[in-house]
Amino acid sequence: MNAKFKTVALSAVMMAGLMAAGAASAQISVGGGATLPQPLYEDLLPSGVGQTNYSYTGTGSGAGKKAFLNNNPQATAGSEFRDESQASRPLWPTTQTVHFAGSDSALTAAERDSYNNDNFLGTSSAPKTRLQGWGPLIQLPAVGAAVLVPYKSSTVSAVTNLDLSDAKVCAIFSKTPGGRTWGEVLGTTDTTPVQVVYRNETSGTTELLSRYLVAACSGTNFIVSNDFRKVVAGAIPAGTPQPRKATDPADPATDAIWTFVDGNGGMSSSFGTAGRIGYLSPDPAYNPSNNTVVAKVNGFLPVADSIKVALGAQVLPINGASTDPLAWVPAYIKPPVTGTGAAYPIFGTTNLLVNQCYANSGALTKVKSFLARLYVPSAKIRQHGFVELPDGTNGTDNWKSKINTTFLTTSSSQGIGNTNVCNGIGRP
Description:
By secondary structure, this protein is α/β, with parallel strands linked by helices.
């Protein structure tokens, strides 16, 4: 081979390599799920029309988890991931990799065990689990969030400074004495029913509310779930209408005390009608310090300082437990009503699901880049009504430092992209 031909051949090889690298780096990183942090993620990633590095579709937490765990953006009919970079928002094909997902609903033990143990990728003769093919599953808290209790009292009561005790919140959501009418809530003669607005779809915000209800309302049979109907079913007295599904026929008795909405946007826009109470993730239309539209609970408004106090009391895993993705979403601990540690009690974290290993280097880089931006001080987090994770100034646990050391340091055994762990494997 002459020198000139060698040079041309070498140049062709280099160009092919550069083109392949360019294609990898240009790949859009596809995610979706929780609507609670959607405005933040759209801003921070960013995602939206004309943005070709990231695409985030708000589908609800349940659909987001399912899409990620099955690596199928169309895993839930009616809640598919879409290409948000295009104004027409076409569906991603079922062959498109789902690189990350947002969920306020924590990963369950069954979901983790299925990922680790089920023959999902292989054949009956050559079984292979997602753990073997894609690498370890990682669940991380993203930001802290309060669940607001928006309200518009009845026209008879017209209260603008609602303060609910735990007992009142329990009574309202269980339709038991003390929370059935506005008079019972306020100690007046107002007989207007309290109409509870609830999320129709599976929702992480619903799950955060349910964790508080289970802790605050002992003996009332609330359960933890991201389906509101399941949360309250056992707590509602016999003979009282249960909240209906969207597919159920309208019923005047039911609809007088329950009304369903779709998504956080549906909840946010539903309080033009008097007599309603609901639950809402941070929303620009509801300033958490405005008691005229957002209820206090136990005397506290859902402001950032109060949530920081509550989160600071919870501890992230260390040592052996840190390899379990379930351990990175701390169990809910209800703050005391008064005294040291007293705080607004309906809160939690919205979380992210990612892989430790990605077969595509461009996707790997973009996932790590997003996380790196998320875990540094950012005005965007506060601007969207969220609370940054504890940094050791409230309580003793520096969540950000622990997450960075464990997952964003490549040399860490759990570091995203660790070449020893990710040798020849990774989410496609």
